[in-house]
User: Fold these one by one.
Assistant:
Number 1:
Amino acid sequence: MNKYKTLLSNTLLISTGTFGSKILVFFMVRFYTGYLSPADYSTADLITQTANMLFPVISLGITEGVFRFALDNERGRRSIFTAGFEVITAGSLMFLIAVPILCSFKSFKGYVWLIVLYTMASCYHSLCAQFVRAVGDTALFAVQGIINTSLVIGLNILFLAVLKIGVTGYVLSVVAADLLSTVFLFVKEKLWRQFTPHPKKAAFVKMLKYSIPLIPTTIFWWITSVSDRYMVNGFIGQYANGIYTVSYKIPTILTLVSTIFMQAWQFSAVTESHGDRKEHIKFFSGVWRSFQAVMFLAGSAV
C-alpha cells in the first residue's frame, strides 16, 4: 500500500506546484491579450514553441537521462549530474555556432537571440529541476515550480505593462524566470557539490543510450501538438494564429492533468520496478485503470 501512498503524495505535491502555477498563467491570458496584439501573441508563441522543439536536440534529451539514472544510483549521482551539465554546455556551444541558420528564417528575423536564450535557459533549468526530483526532493521541485511561475507573471507585468517592450518582454520574462529558478535550485540543493572533475565515461554512454532514442518521440509529439500553428500562421496570417493560440489554452488543461501524473508516475515506475513481478504487474494495472478513469472525467469536464 505504501507504493500507492508514495504515488499519490508525489502527484499531490507536483500538482500543487504545476497545476496551481498553470492555472495562474491561464488567467493571465486576458492580460496578455490586453498588452499584445494577436499578431504579437502569435510571434511570441512561435518563438517559445520553436525553442521547445529545439530543446531535446540541443540537450540530446539528457535531462530525461539525468532523472532516470540519478533516481536509483545514489553513488553515481555526481557523475550523472556532471555528465548532464557537460552535454548541455556542449550542445549550447554548437547551437551558438548554428545561429546563422536560424537567421535565414524570415519569421524569426530580429528574434533569433530570444530563441537561443530561451532554449539554453530552459535546458539548464530542466537539468537542475530533474536532478532535484530524482534525488527525492519532490517538495522542492514543486516549490520551484511556484517560484518560476510567480517570476514569469511578475516579470510579464513589468515588461509588458510598465516597460511596454512587447514580444521581447514576454519571452525575456520566461528566460529570466528560468535562470533565477536555476540559481534557486543550485543554492537550495547545493548542486555545486555534485560536480566532479572526472565523470565516469560509462555515465555518458548509459545516459545517451537512454536519452537519444527519446528525441524523435519528443519531436513527433511536438509536431502533433504544435505544427498546426505554423501552418495557420503561414496560410492565414499572424492575427488568425494569435486568436487560435489563445483558444488552444482551454484543451491544454487536459494535457496538464496527464503531465502532472506522468511526472509522479516516472518516479514510482523506476523505484517499484525491482520488486516481485506479480506485484509489479498488479500495481501497474491498477494505476493504469485509475489513470484512464481520471483522464476520461477530465476530458468530459473540458
Number 2:
Amino acid sequence: MSSPGPLSSFRSRLVWCVLQKYQHGFLDALFSGLSCVVSVPFYTAFLPLLFWSGHGRLARQMTLLIAFCDYVGNSIKDSVSAPRPSSPPVRRVTATKDEEDNALEYGVPSSHTLNTVCLSGYLLHYVLSYPQYEDGSMKFVGVALVCLLVGLIGLGRIYLGMHSLVDVIGGLAIGLVILPFWITVHEYVDIFIVSGQNVTSFWAALSFLLLFAYPTPELPTPSIEYHTAFNGVAFGIVAGIQQTYHQFHHEAVPRIFTPQLTILTFVGRMLLGIPTILLVKLCSKALAKWILPVVSNTLGIPIKSSGYIPNLNGNGKKSDEIKQSGFIQKLFFFSQQSTFDVDTGIRFFQYAGLAWSVVDLVPSLFSQVSL
C-alpha cells in the first residue's frame, strides 16, 4: 500500500513539508488526542451514554449516521485503493493501537474528517432545532466551533502523517454531501424505525446485502472490520428500538440534568450499564464462534478464520472440497471464492449483541433497579 507512484509522491511531498516545519511534542499530543476523540472506538463508547442520558432520538440517528459514513468512506477507500503517504520519509505518529490499525488502511478519503463533518454538523443541527438556540449568535458560534473542529482534525491527520491534503479534502467533500442528505432523510428513517412494519427483517436483509456488496481492495485492510462492526451496531440498535421504543426511548423519557435523571443516577446507570454491555459482547462473540461454523458446515459453505478460531485459520476444512456444489453456496455466490471468512459473521453478531443490550437489556435492568 506504499508503492511509489506520481500521486503517492505528490501526496508525500505535501505532508512532508508540513511535518518538517511544525514538528513539536505538544502538537503530537494535541493532534493525537483529537484523533482519539473523533475515532470509531470513542463513538462506540460515547453513544451508549447518549442513549442512557435520555437523548434517544439523537443517539440512534448518530449511530445510523456513523454507520452510513463508515460504509461509504471505507467502500471508497477500498475501491480507489490509493496509498497513504509513505513512511519514511514522512514521519507517522501512531499513539494508540487504533491508530496503528488505521495506518494499515488506504488513504482516500480521510474517515476522521468525513465523520467529524457529518457528526458534528448533525449534532449542531440537533441543538439548533430547540427554540432557545435559534438566535443568530448561537448559530454563528455553533458553526464556528464545528468549522474549527473540522479544521483541526484535518490539519491533525496531515500533521500525524496519516493523510495528505488530497485525502482530507476528499473526506471533507464527501462529508458535505452526506450531511445535507442525512438531514433531509433522517426524520423519515426515524419514523420507519420506531413505527414501521417488518423493520427488523428488512434491516437484517440490508445488513446482509451491505456485507456482501462491500468492495474487495487490492490488498487486505482493516476497513471491512470497521464496517462490519458498525453494521452490526446499526442492526442491534434498530432491532432493540423496535421492541422497546414505547417503554424506554420515546420523547417523554427523563433526560440528564433534570430532577428525574440526576447526575448521581446517571453515574449509577454507567456503573451498571457498561459492564453489562461488555459482558453481552463477550457472550455474543463466544456464541457466534460456536454456532456460525456449525451452521456454515451444515449449509455446505466453505469457511476459514483469520483470527477468531485458530483451527480454521488455514484455507478451510478439507470437507470444503466436497461441498463446492452446495445449493446455498451457489445461491450466495460462494463458488467465486475458495472460503468465507467466518470472522466477519462473528464480528457482526458480537457488535449486534452489544448494541441490542444498550437499548433493550440495559434499560430493562435500569427499570428493575429504579435507575
